[in-house]
Amino acid sequence: MRTKVGLWIDHRKAVVVTVTDKGDETRLVISTVEKQHRRSGDSPMKGRYERQHVVADDSQQRTFSGHLDAYYDAVVASIGGAESILIFGPGEAKGELKKRLRRKHLSGRVAVLETVDKMTDRQIAAKVRQHFAE
Description:
Nucleotidyltransferase, domain 5, single chain, 134 residues, five-stranded mixed β-sheet
């Protein structure tokens, strides 16, 4: 049985559409990543500024990267043993996922990497079916 996967991804969620001889199945992988981290603590404009009250930028970046790593690992696990992978989405996440697949020696399975705008789950499933029908 041939398995092909289409994947719409951004930093907040991934919609995975698996197409087999028996039909297609859609799964959703949700990320715990926040869009932008905000600094906590006093602002110099509002009061006294103390270094101890402000979280360091590198600490926030490590937290962000850790959440992204767990998210991408879940997405890679949901792809499974697909023969061919179509990756598309609006932002940087698709390129970051392709790098992750390269490190796991799965980049040869990526057929297409495409930039598209936001789409509904039905539009995503239709695009994947159309791509693999050709």
